[in-house]
Structure formats: structure tokens, C-alpha cells
Design a protein that fits this description.
- The complex is a heterotrimer of chains A (114), B (490) and C (482).
- Chain A has a domain of 42 residues.
- Chain A contains four helices and two strands, in the order αααββα.
- A two-stranded antiparallel sheet of chain A has the order 1-2.
- Chain C is elongated.
- Chain C has 15 helices and 16 strands.
- Chain C folds into three domains: 295 residues, no CATH class; 105 residues, no CATH class; 59 residues, Orthogonal Bundle (Arc Repressor Mutant, subunit A).
- In chain C, strands 2-6-7-10-1-11-12-13-14 form a nine-stranded mixed sheet.
- In chain C, α5 crosses α6, α7 packs across α8 and α13 runs antiparallel to α14.
- The mean pLDDT of chain C is 88.
- Classes of the chains: A mainly alpha (114), B alpha/beta (490), C alpha+beta (482).
- At the A-B interface, α1, α2, α3 and β2 of A face α12, α13, α14 and α15 of B.
- β2 of chain A pairs antiparallel with β9 of chain C.
């Protein structure tokens, strides 16, 4: 499977990254060879759901396994937490206006992803 | 003063146990010890670049507090006054944590990683944050956005094929900047770097140590690990950070290896015999020791998995693409220079600019691959396949551990052998099993030779016991050439 | 003729003390960014830990809606960049939701036997997910303000199959669902506070057409009334386009409800192309309900649900299904009704007074109890029964009871509203009125029986409303005949 420059650029748009033509071309080549390598692997089983996660790993006892009791546990360093954010005004995080008047935003991604 | 001289000469070599003893018998104070470390860092690190942040003031302040506690006869904890370096992708409250990325160049977390919290509670003091590849992605430091963070590794110049390993923590320990390091361990970043630098490194079972506060590149292939000068130190620190405290590993250490079955992948030994006589000899010596101590050592087949690298990359990228989506310039971290009040309706542009300017090429590649995997049919098929490869790797190790209690894997560090070692490291990440590396000799050019032991899930105690037995028999401690080499940079 | 098909997606905030993945409080109305921590603020390295109460409540909802509860379900990441999403992904359940395949029975408004008593609306799934942060867009500055208090609050999303056939049905469904969730203690379901939100999709096609209609999604309704109005508007809009041969103008899109103008408008931006890049959440293990403790959640007793209660009210109290429907609209109200009857009031009277009088003064909900205690209302009704106070006076008393929170007798005594029931006293009044209205009396005697009402009115007026009308009527009749 070849990965072409357009695909790479499209992926970059989805991931909100800008690539130069050169970077995109290099990446396309790079990824193509990666997929080729994967393609050469022979596997006996070819079906199965996507299980990329810890879900079906036999690695048991993940730390989140135990359900948490519904008991409030107030984070003690709220002020520091707010300080670690970008722009805080009157305890609100401030960022450029996201919405156009309809409640959405004109984004690159919507224009290209039919 | 005798003790002063003794300390300034060898503070860099000292183990946790030695420091703790020195504190207890008042041979030296915590504050003067910390100051010596800091002086050493100031003198040597400019040439090494292992640190991204050195915590001079806070470390000295903490030291003073601990000294006071000590003088009042209080309990300062198992790691009271022990300087600690923490990789810069592990969150430290009030201390900048950058992941060696512009994306977090001035990010100061309001929380400690769970493991950091535990070590601090045991009295350890953070002396600095060490460098790594941007977000610990990839095996090379080339092309990262935050170059300044990535100059370390000159310690073993020329010893590796593809640039240096990603672990500033290991270099910092090797250079004698601290006796204990906390670091993330994907792709051998803990175990292999420890081996290269003549240290003991432990990568615990996936799930044995809380990943809370480890800033993730991959989620399921990474784990917080430890590095120290000897096995006892490593076991002590592990006992503190592990999730379920039911056995005391330090006590178990001296139990020996009698009756343990140790397997060696014959695919790996074949590779060594052809390529590296010195390593082969060192491994042979280790095997003889284990046999003498009553273990049963034998070769078995555990071939490098077909497609391991690409499967690893696909899984890691899918997770990374998602994990790194939060660096969007909106909430925290690097934000492209567009003040919010002026950037009407330009949020989308701001996100794109922030992300593009934040990340180095290696990270971008990873994100784009991850996006491809998660948004196209072909990508999804690749992911399914990669997951099957992982499953196969898991099964292979499971099967191996039905026939042996431990696997012994030589660490090949030269240009020809590294890819094999790297491959096994990725396999172990995929299987989520614990591993430890321990020095087992030196090459003719005085570079450390390391040996890696792996065991089934949650068998860290067994690993550390085996490492300790070998360490005791070899008695290499005291011969620590690496940091002396570092002195040459002065 | 046309057919309308409507499907609903309902987001309901669960009534937990803490958020879905962290110990932050879920309190409503706290100062901005008050209930936040590294987890819900999406800080790097923070990891989620699942709140068991949210799981328990989701299971309750699923069981009440006759869903299959999946013994193992899992979380996924839904990725998109937006200021309300600090991690740039939402943790939700995509592949395997916690509940699947349930239904809700709607009582048929016509109740005609051939149609069957109920119409069954299938529920596709119920899944757990986290809420996003709240965004505020100040009018004076081109910025967006973010309050993370809401980020991470547990939600369930209930998705119906497209089986509702009219806007009224949709509203009825939502009302019934809301009642069920309130009964279960799963949610407050306060639309005005955003603890219940609903997106709808609607398609219209010519009756008999095989081709499915084009699905249009509508957002931004803040009450059940608005939802019904928006659906009615949209239904008409699409019908009109069909009738004017412009059905091609109906496109699959998301439209916003403009409550001020009462119309739906297309959103300028389209998000059909948005890639959510669903991805199994690697930081959370699956929800496994096969352990002994979680198993018990599957067997917990559920309270009597609105439908069951309604049936019981009809059978046990002899109420009409209309009355039973109103009285079971919320658990608080149903309980109130039963309390009043427990004080010995006839169910019909209790129902009457509650529905026609009390509900003018009280909108029942979980934490807003009736301003008039059930015992007091029972007392008031008994006073009417005993003839000690007239119905009209009782209404006045009820208003005062509501306003001042006082007991009925206090008010009656203070305002001197005790009904005059003494024969002699009333006879005196009747005679006085007859004496003052001799013309009317003559007319009556001449056969104009209508005048009786006029005379009664005069008597009541003279008695300032306190006269027992039954007794007065009898006496008047006797005297006129006599």
C-alpha cells in the first residue's frame, strides 16, 4: 500500500499540523515502507476486533481496574492548577472566540473531509 | 575534615545505602551532600546536557529541613535526603516539566506523578529534571524541537549506531549527579540505558507502578522505571513506588537463585557469538556463576517477532496521536503568538500554528501515522494486524515462562547488534513484562557490559534477587569507570 | 399524505456526588473553575479512575428501560479539537455501550382497543460518557471563556430508534422518560440547568414511499415545549417543500432552533465530515460486571416506575387514566397524593384538589416539596367534607396556606370563614332575602323556576360566602313551596 503526499497532508490537517511539501513527501515515503513491512507479516488469524488497548491484554491489574467510590476528593492545589493554564481571567480560562454566530466554527477540516 | 574530603572525592559514586549510612552516623550532612551534587552538576553538566532543569534552591531547602529533622532525632524516611533525578516527562509539582518539547516549554504541573509523590514522601529530594527525546518518542534525538534539551549522551560517544539512547537520567547517574533516577521505560529507555552506563535499571510490570503523572507518548507500551547504582538501591526504591506492597524485596534479595530455571534465547546468543566476543565471554561468566549458585541455565528458542518494529510503531503512534492531541495551545503549554483578544475567529489557525511550532519532526511523524491509523480503513487494518502481532509476542513470552523462571538477555550495544536488542526491548514492552539490567563486566575499552533479565508479570522480586546474586558474586561495585570518563569533560 | 419519523438522543447528567473520572464535586452553580483537578482539566499525565456510582445509575436506567446490560463494556476516545474539550477527546462508550436494546411504552392518547393500549418505542443503546466544559461567549469581547466545572460530569446518552411518529409523541416520550429517570434517582432531569439535553432528528416522506426520508438534526432546544415546537415547525417546513416540488432542498444537515423566531435555521458550518477517530481508551480497563459486588447492581430493587404506578392508581383509587397520568408525573407528586389519601381523604377528592388547585401553586420536583403539607391539605378537604367551610372559601384558604405556610384552621378562624350551617341562622337569611325580593318570589311562584338561582345567589351574597349552599337551598325550596 502506497501512502501518497495528499493522504499525508490530509492526515496533517486532521491532526491540525502544517507540513511543508518536502516534509509531506518524506513522510509519505517513510510510511509507505512501514506499511510494506507490516504487509509482509504473515499471521494465522486474520479476524478479530480492534483491541489496541489494555482491554484485552493479559496484563491484568491495571491501576484503574478498581472502581472508584463516589466520594468527593477535592484537589488541594486548585490555584496552582489555574496558574499552569494559559490565560486566566477572573478564574475563567480565556481563549480566542471559537464560535461563529451559528455555534460552529469554520474549520479547515470540515471543508476537506467529505 | 576527613569526612569532607572523602565525600567530595566520591560523592558521585555513592549508593543510597552509603549515603544513608553517612547521614545516620553524621559523617556528613544532607545539605552539604546536596551541595556537592549541585556543584558537580554545575561543573560537569554543561558538557553533558543531561538536565533540563536543576532544582538548586528547592533541593537545598529540602535538605536543610531534613537535616533539622535528623538532628531532632526524627525519622526522615527510607530515602531521607537521597537526591533523585526525574525524567522530564514525569510530572513534578512546582517544577517545570517539559517532555523536552516546546509544547510544554514552560509548563509547571500542579501535581506530582504518583511515583514521585511516593519517593518524596520517603524523603527523597529532587535535584533535577533530566532530558529525553521529545515526549520520549523515537530512538534518536535528531530533529527534535527542543534541541537544547537533548545534548546529553556524549558519555558513550560513538558506542551506538543511531545517536544516543533517549535517557538523560541514565547519563546523569553515570556522571555521578545523583544515586537514583526515575524514568519512563519504553523501548528499553530504562533497562538498556542502564546497561550502557553500567547501572542497574528496573522496568516493572505494566501496571505494577502507577503511571499517573507520566506524560504519555504511548499508553500501553510505557511504564515508569528506576535506575540506581546497585540492585539493593533499586529494590529499595521499587518497594516504595510499587502498587501493592505485600513483600519486602530487599529482604528477599539475599535468598539466592537456587533452583531457578534461567533460559537464554538461542537466537540472541548466536548473534553474540558471531559479533561480540567480549560480551559472549562476560555472559558466559555470568552463566557459570548462576550455575554455581544452583540455578539451571539452558538455551531455548525465543526469536525476535516478525514485524515487531512496525507493529510497535503502529500501536504507539495510534496512542500517541490521541495522547498528544491535547497540546492545542488552547488550554496550557505552548501557544503561538496570537493574544486571545486579537485573534477573533482565529482559534483554528491558532491551534494549527501552536501545534506545528510545538512539535519536532519525529513527533509529527508519529502523530500523522497515528491519525492515519485511526481515520482510514487501511490504517484500521494495520492496527488490527499490529495488535495481532502484539498478541503473538505475548503468547511467545507466556510460553517461554512456562519453561523457565527467568530469561537472560545479553545487551548488545554496538552498531550491528543494537537493533536486535532494541527488538527484544520492544517485545518486552508489548508483553508488558518486567525486566532488570545489571552490569556484568567491562569491555577492553572500559565500557560497561550489561546483562538483562526478564520474568513473567509481577515477578520483580525474582528478577532483583537474580540480579543481586550476580552482582554480589561479580563484586563490580567500586569499579565505576563511567563517571570518571565524564570527568574528562571538565 | 406524509409520514414523520423522529429519533431522539438524550443526554442526562447522572446524580453522583463526584465526576465520572475524578473526585471533583459535581455541584451546580459553583464559582467558575472551582471543581477542577488535573484529571478533568485534561492535564498531561493525569489518568481517569471510573466512578462506580455512575455505573450503578446507568445500569438502573438501563434496567428500567428493559435494556440488555452488557456484562463487559468499554470506553473509547472520541477525538475533536474544541475549547470545551481539554484533552481534545471525550471519553465515551462507542464500541460496546453499557446497555443495549431496550424500550419504553407510551400510553396511547386515544387508548382505543384496536390500536392497543401502548406504543412501544425501541431504545437502541444507553452509554456512559463525560460532559464537556462550559463555554461562555461574552458579547463585548471576541473571546471565549472556559469553565471546567462541568468537564467530566457523568452523563448517560440514551439513543432511541427512529420510531416516534409525531412531535407530540416525541414530547410524550421525553416526559415519560424524565419521570422514569427521576423516579429512579438517576438524574434531576432539569432542562433549565442542562442536566437533561436532547438532540432530535426528523425525516418526512410521502406515505407509502419506500425511500427513507432525509434525516435532519435539530439542536438547541431548552424545554420539552420547544422540542415539540421545533419538530412541528420542521415537519411543516419539509411537508411544504414536498408540496411545492422542492423536496430536493431537504438535505441531511444540522439545524438550530431559534426560539425567538420560532423557526429552525441551518447551521453555517457543517460537521458531517468530522472524523471522530474513535479509539479504545487505553487508560481505562473495561467495565466488568461479573464480579460479585457489581453483580448485585443488576439485581437491585427498582422503585415502582411511573407506568406501573399509573396502572395501580387507576385500579386502587379508581382514578381516570388522565388523573393518574398527572399524579404520577413525578415521584414527589405521586407520593404526595398517596399521603393525602392516607389521612383518610377520598382519592377522588384528593386528586381533584391536587390537580385543579394545588398544582397551580406548586411545580413538583425532587427537592422542591409541596409548600402545603399533605396533612394540611387533607385537613382542608375534610373541613369541606364536614361542611364547615365552602369550596370557594377553601380555595382562598389554600392560597393563604401556600403563601404563609399556615394551618387551614388558623386562616379560617382569622378570616372568619367558618361556614354557616345552623338551620335557624340560615332560615333567617333566607327569609330576609325573600322579603327584599318579593318580585322574584312572585315570578318563581308563577312558574319561572330559573329565578331560584338568582335567589340563591342573593342568599350567598348576604351570607358573604359562608353560607352552606346545600342547607340554604333546601330551606329556600321549602319556603317557596310553603
Amino acid at each position: 500500500m502506497k501512502t501518497d503526499v495528499n493522504t499525508v497532508k490530509h492526515m496533517a490537517r486532521l491532526a491540525k499540523l502544517k507540513l511543508t511539501d518536502q516534509e509531506a513527501a518524506a513522510l509519505a515515503e517513510d510510511l509507505s515502507s512501514l506499511f510494506a513491512e507490516l504487509n509482509n507479516i504473515r499471521l494465522d488469524e486474520t479476524t478479530g476486533q480492534c483491541e489496541t488497548t489494555a482491554q484485552k491484554l493479559d496484563i491484568a491489574q491495571l491501576e484503574g481496574c478498581a472502581l472508584r467510590k463516589d466520594e468527593p476528593d477535592k484537589f488541594p492545589y486548585r490555584t496552582e492548577l489555574l496558574q499552569s493554564m494559559k490565560h486566566i481571567r477572573d478564574d475563567y480560562a480565556v481563549m480566542p472566540r471559537a464560535l461563529n454566530p451559528d455555534g460552529g466554527w469554520d474549520s479547515e477540516e470540515s471543508k476537506h473531509d467529505e | 575534615m576527613k569526612s569532607q574530603n572523602m565525600m567530595s572525592n566520591n560523592v558521585g559514586e555513592m549508593t543510597i545505602s552509603e549515603l544513608a549510612e553517612g547521614y545516620r552516623y553524621r559523617h556528613f550532612s544532607i545539605r552539604e551532600t546536596v551541595r556537592h551534587y549541585l556543584e558537580r552538576i554545575a561543573k560537569l553538566d554543561e558538557g553533558l546536557g543531561t538536565f533540563i532543569t536543576v532544582c538548586k534552591e528547592t533541593a537545598l531547602r529540602e535538605a536543610e529541613k531534613l537535616d533539622e529533622g535528623l538532628s531532632r532525632g526524627g525519622d526522615i524516611g527510607l530515602l531521607g535526603g537521597i537526591p533523585l533525578v526525574v525524567a522530564d516527562n514525569i510530572c513534578t509539582r512546582g517544577i517545570r516539566t517539559t517532555c523536552a518539547s516546546r509544547a510544554l516549554e514552560d509548563f509547571v504541573p500542579s501535581y506530582d506523578a504518583a511515583a514521585v509523590e511516593r519517593l518524596k514522601a520517603a524523603g527523597a529530594l529532587i535535584i533535577g529534571k533530566t532530558g529525553l527525546n521529545e515526549f520520549a518518542i523515537g530512538a534518536s534525538t535528531e530533529g527534535t524541537a527542543h534541541q537544547a534539551a537533548c545534548f546529553f549522551g556524549n558519555l558513550r560517544k560513538g558506542s551506538r549506531a543511531n545517536g544516543d539512547l533517549t535517557c538523560g537520567s541514565a547519563a546523569a547517574l553515570a556522571a555521578g549527579f545523583a544515586p537514583l533516577a526515575l524514568s519512563s521505560g519504553t523501548r528499553g529507555a530504562v533497562t538498556l540505558s542502564a546497561a550502557f552506563y553500567g547501572l542497574v535499571g528496573l522496568k516493572p510490570t505494566c501496571g505494577a507502578v502507577s503511571r499517573y503523572g507520566l506524560i504519555p507518548f504511548t499508553s500501553t507500551l510505557d511504564q515508569i522505571g528506576l535506575m540506581a547504582r546497585d540492585t539493593r538501591d533499586c529494590a529499595l526504591a521499587f518497594q516504595i513506588i510499587r502498587n501493592n506492597v505485600n513483600t519486602s524485596d530487599t529482604e528477599e534479595l539475599s535468598k539466592g537463585v537456587e533452583g531457578l530455571r534461567i533460559g537464554i534465547p538461542k537466537e540472541l546468543t548466536e548473534c553474540i557469538r558471531e559479533q561480540n566476543q567480549e560480551l559472549a565471554a562476560a555472559i558466559h561468566k555470568a552463566i557459570r556463576i548462576y550455575e554455581r549458585l544452583g540455578a539451571e541455565v539452558g538455551e531455548m528458542s525465543l526469536p525476535p517477532a516478525d514485524g515487531c518494529l512496525s507493529a510497535y510503531e503502529i500501536i504507539a503512534s495510534a496512542e500517541a496521536g490521541s495522547n498528544l492531541a491535547r497540546y492545542d495551545g488552547m488550554h496550557y503549554g505552548y501557544c503561538s503568538d496570537m493574544p486571545p483578544d486579537e485573534a477573533e475567529h482565529n482559534l483554528n489557525e491558532m491551534i494549527i500554528r501552536s501545534r506545528t511550532e510545538s512539535f519536532g519532526m519525529e513527533v509529527k511523524r508519529c502523530i500523522i501515522l497515528g491519525t492515519y491509523v485511526l481515520s482510514t480503513e487501511h490504517g484500521a487494518a494495520c492496527l488490527r494486524k499490529a495488535v495481532q502481532v502484539r498478541r503473538r509476542v505475548q503468547n511467545a513470552w507466556k510460553e517461554a515462562f512456562r519453561h523457565c523462571d527467568l530469561m537472560l538477555l545479553p545487551v548488545l550495544s554496538d552498531s550491528n547488534g543494537f537493533s536486535v536488542t532494541d527488538g527484544y526491548a520492544m517485545m518486552m514492552d508489548m508483553a508488558g513484562i518486567p525486566a532488570v539490567t545489571v552490569p556484568c563486566g567491562f569491555s577492553s575499552s572500559a565500557l560497561p557490559i550489561g546483562l538483562q533479565l526478564a520474568a513473567d508479570h509481577y515477578k520483580e522480586g525474582r528478577l532483583l534477587r537474580a540480579a543481586y546474586s550476580l552482582e554480589q558474586e561479580l563484586a563490580l561495585t567500586g569499579f565505576r569507570p563511567v563517571w570518571k570518563e565524564a570527568d574528562r569533560f571538565v | 399524505m406524509f409520514e414523520t419519523i423522529i429519533g431522539l438522543e438524550i443526554h442526562v447528567e447522572l446524580k453522583t456526588r463526584t465526576k465520572l473520572f475524578c473526585g471533583c464535586s459535581t455541584g451546580f452553580g459553583d464559582p467558575p473553575n472551582h471543581n477542577i483537578c488535573p484529571v478533568c482539566a485534561g492535564m498531561p499525565g493525569a489518568l481517569p479512575a471510573l466512578n462506580e456510582e455512575a455505573v450503578r445509575l446507568a445500569i438502573r436506567a438501563g434496567r428500567a428501560l428493559s435494556c440488555r446490560i452488557n456484562p463487559v463494556s468499554s470506553f473509547d476516545r472520541k477525538s475533536y479539537f474544541y475549547p470545551d474539550l481539554p484533552k481534545s477527546y471525550q471519553i465515551t462508550q462507542h464500541q460496546i455501550p453499557i446497555c443495549e436494546g431496550g424500550y419504553l411504552d407510551l400510553e396511547d392518547p386515544d387508548n382505543s382497543p384496536e390500536k392497543g393500549l401502548y406504543r412501544r418505542i425501541a431504545i437502541e443503546r444507553i452509554h456512559l460518557e463525560e460532559d464537556a466544559a462550559k463555554l461562555i461567549h461574552p458579547e463585548d469581547r471576541p473571546v471565549t471563556l472556559v469553565d471546567y466545572n462541568r468537564a467530566g460530569i457523568p452523563l448517560i446518552e440514551i439513543v432511541t430508534r427512529p420510531e416516534l411518529t409525531s412531535p407530540e409523541d416525541a414530547a410524550a416520550f421525553l416526559k415519560e422518560l424524565k419521570a422514569i429517570l427521576e423516579y429512579l434517582g438517576v438524574s434531576d432531569c432539569r432542562m433549565e440547568q442542562g442536566s437533561l439535553r436532547c438532540d432530535v432528528n426528523i425525516s418526512v416522506r410521502k406515505t407509502g414511499s419506500r425511500k427513507p426520508g432525509t434525516k435532519v438534526e435539530i439542536k438547541n432546544m431548552n424545554s420539552f415545549r420547544e422540542i415539540q415546537k421545533a419538530l412541528e415547525y420542521e415537519q411543516e417546513r419539509q411537508k411544504k417543500l414536498f408540496l411545492s416540488n422542492r423536496s430536493h432542498e431537504i438535505i441531511s444537515e444540522t439545524r438550530m432552533w431559534d426560539s425567538r423566531q420560532g423557526i429552525t435555521k441551518p447551521m453555517r458550518f457543517k460537521d458531517e465530515g468530522r472524523h471522530y477517530r474513535f479509539f479504545p481508551e487505553p487508560d481505562l480497563p473495561p467495565i466488568d460486571l461479573r464480579s460479585s459486588r457489581t453483580l448485585s447492581w443488576l439485581e437491585e430493587n427498582l422503585p415502582e416506575l411511573p407506568g406501573q404506578k399509573r396502572e395501580r392508581f387507576v385500579k386502587q383509587y379508581g382514578l381516570s387514566s388522565y388523573e393518574a397520568g398527572i399524579l404520577t408525573g413525578s415521584r414527589a407528586l405521586a407520593d404526595y397524593f398517596e399521603e393525602v389519601t392516607a389521612y383518610g381523604v377520598r382519592p377522588g377528592d384528593a386528586s381533584n384538589w391536587i390537580i385543579t388547585e394545588l398544582l397551580r401553586l406548586w411545580k413538583p420536583s425532587e427537592d422542591r416539596g409541596s409548600p402545603v403539607r399533605s396533612r394540611s391539605l387533607a385537613q382542608l378537604i375534610r373541613l369541606i367534607d364536614e361542611g364547615r367551610i365552602s369550596r370557594n372559601a377553601a380555595k382562598e384558604v389554600l392560597n393563604d396556606m401556600h403563601a404563609a405556610g399556615r394551618e387551614p384552621m388558623d386562616i379560617i378562624m382569622q378570616k372568619n370563614l367558618i361556614q354557616v350551617s345552623g338551620q335557624d341562622e340560615i332560615a333567617e337569611l333566607v327569609e330576609a332575602v325573600m322579603a327584599d325580593n318579593t318580585d322574584a318570589v312572585q315570578e318563581y311562584k308563577a312558574g319561572k323556576s330559573k329565578v331560584f338561582g338568582f335567589l340563591m345567589g342573593q342568599i350567598m351574597k348576604a351570607g358573604r360566602g359562608r353560607v352552606n349552599p346545600n342547607i340554604a337551598g333546601k330551606i329556600l325550596e321549602e319556603r317557596l313551596k310553603g
